[in-house]
């Protein structure tokens, strides 16, 4: 019988105002890691302002609200921040590499997990880079949205994001009618059709080549787990994978016999193996799960959820994966049925045949950290609030939305003894006590009220002028 220890008392908060005195210096020290990578003084100065802006406790982390809170109602400051984000030629890839180096001492672990996650961002209008009317997971329906892929890192010490890539719809790169949109958004000319699996594989390759992160596993959801090319790429990097797969995924419970066809004496000799007549066909993992459910399986504690422990029945079996209709690598099939909802989760795991059951089951609860990182980033750290249209602007904004949450993660690790229940969403409230901001008084409120109508008027006149020009061209 599964035994779970009860929790008797609530964790206490033992932080004092004195404990926050060094917080601003720590934040500046975090900025100093990337400052040498900026070639111009103005870029360093605006990065030192943009990063605290992402940490502010504001309902929206786009450029104008951040500048209003930090710099006041200055149109010049807003334009300068826009220039820094959308047109600044600073190397965000180098900054992310430096970020990986900083993550390793804080969260590195030999049994660490790299996590891939696709995420959609609803977007108004047709002009933002990569926008398309498509199924949006965030809304559960078809809508205008951008699709991104994120790479995260998880270990017993904590979790954080490492990288991000925008996934462009195929027509954005192959449709001649989209050429003007590509130029307007600054999409690099050398960009090829980057599907989500291709983007995920590229991020894993970059982290692997950098050699800055220790890890044992790569985990992904079924949207990426169905892509066998990505899974084989992960295996080629020398790490194990835990990939959720759709229930119609087919496997063999025993390797079927295959043989190369006899050569007829004409043409090229056949090299591709074929099934031997009478060999067993592959089964869907759902069929295997149906046979398993009649006998059930032992219960295991998958993870400690926000509402209590999550317990599931688990079973594992060694199976043969399918590759282009033929037998492929031997992998583990894990069947997991939630003890509360009865929902079935099926996943394939590339790990040695002698791997014990415990680590295989433990991985069932290791995909949630990246989902939590992305959701916390969207809710309170500006992920998805960029309000920019360009390729460079999207990646630049997401870079800061990756670096700043790690500052909060590291801070939480350092004060874990005195604040064990401190969460990342509470981080902006913690930081707001030390980041210098505009005084929230009647004069500031009136200045902001005057700023927005002026800005909206300028935008309206520009849009109106372009529309009139297009109408005149039609005549």
The whole-number mean of residue pLDDT values reads: 83
Q: In one word, what is the shape? A: globular
Global structural class: alpha+beta
Distance between the termini: 80 Å
Q: Secondary structure elements and their pairing?
A:
Blueprint lengths: L22 H10 L8 H15 L7 H8 L4 H12 L5 H16 L5 E10 L9 E5 L4 E15 L2 E10 L2 H5 L4 H7 L10 H15 L6 E4 L1 H4 L2 H9 L3 E5 L5 E3 L5 E2 L14 E2 L7 E2 H9 L5 E7 L2 E16 L2 E13 L5 E7 L6 H6 L5 H13 L10 H24 L12 H6 L9 H33 L1
Parallel strand pairs: 1-5, 5-6
Antiparallel strand pairs: 1-3, 2-3, 3-4, 6-14, 7-10, 7-12, 8-9, 11-12, 12-13, 13-14
Give a written overview of the molecule.
The chain has 475 residues and is of the alpha+beta class. The chain folds into two domains: 17-221 and 370-432, no CATH class; 242-253 and 280-362, no CATH class. Helices cover 40% and strands 21% of the residues. Strands 1, 2, 3, 4, 5, 6, 7, 10, 11, 12, 13 and 14 form a twelve-stranded mixed beta sheet that branches. It has a two-stranded antiparallel sheet with strand order 8-9. Strand 11 (299-305) and strand 12 (308-323) form a beta hairpin. The longest helix has 33 residues, at 442-474. The radius of gyration is 26 Å and the shape is globular. The model has no long low-confidence stretch (mean pLDDT 83).
Annotation keywords:
12-stranded mixed sheet; 2 domains; 475 residues; alpha+beta; 21% strand; 14 strands
Summarize the structure.
The chain is an alpha+beta fold and 475 residues long. The chain has helices at residues 23-32, 41-55, 63-70, 75-86, 92-107, 170-174, 179-185, 196-210, 222-225, 228-236, 285-293, 357-362, 368-380, 391-414, 427-432, 442-474, and strands at residues 113-122, 132-136, 141-155, 158-167, 217-220, 240-244, 250-252, 258-259, 274-275, 283-284, 299-305, 308-323, 326-338, 344-350. It folds into 2 domains: 17-221 and 370-432, no CATH class; 242-253 and 280-362, no CATH class.
């Amino acid at each position: 019988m599964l035994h779970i220890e009860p929790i008797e008392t609530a964790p206490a908060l033992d932080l004092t105002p004195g404990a926050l005195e060094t917080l601003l210096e720590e934040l500046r020290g975090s900025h100093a890691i990337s400052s040498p990578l900026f070639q111009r003084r103005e870029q360093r100065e605006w990065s030192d302002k943009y990063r605290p802006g992402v940490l502010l406790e504001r309902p929206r982390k786009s450029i104008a609200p951040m500048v209003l809170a930090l710099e006041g109602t200055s149109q010049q400051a807003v334009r300068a921040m826009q220039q820094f984000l959308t047109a600044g030629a600073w190397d965000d890839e180098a900054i992310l590499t430096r970020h990986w180096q900083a993550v390793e001492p804080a969260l590195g672990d030999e049994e660490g997990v790299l996590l891939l996650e696709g995420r959609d961002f609803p977007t108004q209008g047709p002009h933002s880079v990569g926008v398309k009317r498509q199924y949006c997971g965030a809304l559960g329906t078809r809508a205008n949205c951008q699709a991104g892929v994120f790479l995260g890192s998880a270990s017993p010490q904590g979790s954080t994001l490492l990288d991000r890539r925008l996934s462009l719809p195929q027509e954005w790169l192959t449709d001649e009618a989209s050429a003007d949109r590509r130029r307007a958004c600054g999409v690099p000319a050398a960009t090829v059709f980057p599907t989500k699996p291709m983007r995920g594989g590229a991020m894993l390759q970059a982290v692997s080549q950098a050699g800055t992160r220790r890890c044992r596993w790569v985990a992904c959801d079924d949207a990426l787990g169905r892509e066998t090319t990505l899974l084989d790429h992960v295996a080629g990097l020398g790490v194990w994978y835990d990939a959720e797969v759709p229930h119609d995924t087919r496997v063999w419970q025993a390797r079927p016999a295959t043989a190369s066809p006899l050569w007829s004496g004409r043409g090229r000799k056949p090299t591709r193996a074929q099934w031997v007549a009478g060999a067993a066909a592959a089964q869907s993992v759902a069929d295997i799960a149906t046979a398993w459910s009649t006998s059930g399986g032992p219960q295991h504690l998958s993870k400690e959820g926000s509402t209590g422990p999550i317990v599931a029945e688990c079973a594992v079996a060694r199976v043969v994966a399918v590759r282009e209709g033929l037998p492929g690598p031997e992998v583990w099939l894990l069947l997991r049925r939630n003890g509360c909802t009865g929902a079935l989760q099926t996943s394939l795991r590339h790990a040695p045949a002698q791997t014990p059951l415990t680590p295989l089951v433990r991985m069932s609860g290791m995909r949630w950290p990246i989902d939590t990182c992305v959701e916390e980033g969207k809710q309170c750290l500006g992920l998805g609030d960029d309000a920019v249209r360009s390729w460079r602007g999207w990646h630049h904004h997401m870079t800061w939305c990756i670096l700043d949450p790690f500052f909060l993660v590291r801070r939480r690790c350092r004060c874990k003894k005195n604040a064990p229940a401190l969460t990342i969403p509470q981080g902006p409230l913690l930081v707001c006590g030390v980041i210098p901001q505009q005084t929230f008084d009647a004069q500031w409120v009136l200045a902001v009220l005057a700023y927005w109508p002026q800005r909206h008027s300028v935008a309206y006149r520009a849009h109106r002028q372009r529309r009139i020009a297009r109408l005149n061209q039609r005549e």
